[in-house]
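Appendix C. Worked example: Aspartokinase
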Amino acid sequence: MKVAKFGGSSLANATQFKKVANIVMDDAERKFIVVSAPGKRHDKDYKVTDLLISLGNAFYNKDKYKSYYITIIDRFTKIINELNVDDALVEEIKAKIDATLDASLSYEDLMNQIKALGEDSSAKILSAYLQTLGVNAHYVNPKDAGIIVKNDPHGAQLLKDSYEKIYTLREKDGVLVIPGFFGFTKDGQLATFSRGGSDITGAIVSAGVEATLYENFTDVDSVYAVNPSIVENPHEIKQLTYREMRELSYAGFSVFHDEALIPAFNARIPVCIKNTNNPSAPGTMIVADREIDDKCVVGIASDTGFSSLYVSKFLMNREIGFGRKLFQILENEQVSFEHSPSGIDDMSIIIRDSQLTEEKEQKIVKRIYDELHADFVAFHRDLALIMVVGEGMNEAIGMAQTATTALGEANVNLEMINQGSSEVSMMFGIKANDLHRAIKALYRAYFE
Ligand code: ASP
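Step 2, the predicted output written as structure tokens:
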């Protein structure tokens, strides 16, 4: 039994729904189908989830919300009509949106419920459409599927006891179409996962039903070794381990949600990233172990939007508790950190810019001077991180040298290196302006 999850681009319009239906019908093992909300049809289009978020915010703030409402209903109506599915479904979806726009709901409940309507409607439409094609398909609400979660402002978290109930889905008849992105708390409140979280539902269902394979359908033939918008026609990755995928998705490979790796990894369910628009392409497999060849590096990921907090104090290495006090300040300011390379008298802490405000930065710097009596404290902005990823890298000789030589020849200044903390990656910090040049140079050095 397989789980197939279809992302937003796979359900953006009626044509895409038809491709999805063909893929479902093409393999009798595809029993559990998890869907996203309709995504963008073209570059300037909106994802239905974003429209729903705008609708919820406008409604809650008593702003004009009708245009969002109409656009959303129009998108669903068009899909339903073009698929020749019974019109009554338009009314059902409309009634559900109307019922959710309830002024007595708290902001959190309103937003959770409204965000979930994209996936919920997609699942109802796909199951109705499959039925018109003669497939014994059923819509299954996440509550009935047993997806029980704990609410969390950063995204719902699955409760472990869910798995027992999810396993019983195996006994249900036919093809089950389950909306992604949300579950229910023990007391019946709807709670959504973090953005892009339909992947998480797919992984949870895969682990729960003990699927032989979790197929994740998106709009690329495979995961590429490097961002194709930086390097033309990059090498396709055939196989990755969970650890490699984790490192790559951390630093900008957005093909698979990093949180979704956990349930798949724990249950050792192989994941296959495939293309809805080219389903016969083999895709990329994500597995527990792979054979490691002498090339080691599988991919180079990168992301911008980082800052480094630099702290210097003479004899820092001898001061007991310095690190704890420094990190305590960050904790008090509710800031998490990414990496922390250090020297004898200095320490750098890499932080995502999205966590910082000017006010927070000033407060952190002041507290470090006042409380830790540092000699020098400063935030350095506009950093980009590059992760060179591959199993077996920590044992291969000369891996770092290849990178530093390539970067040096490309005239890229290295702000920092972190090697050895992770068994499967090396991290380089550079100025964001140099990023494209650096990635091209590294790709040439490792892959060409
Ligand atoms: N529709 C949700 C989002 O846009 C979840 C998903 O597509 O996976 O974040």
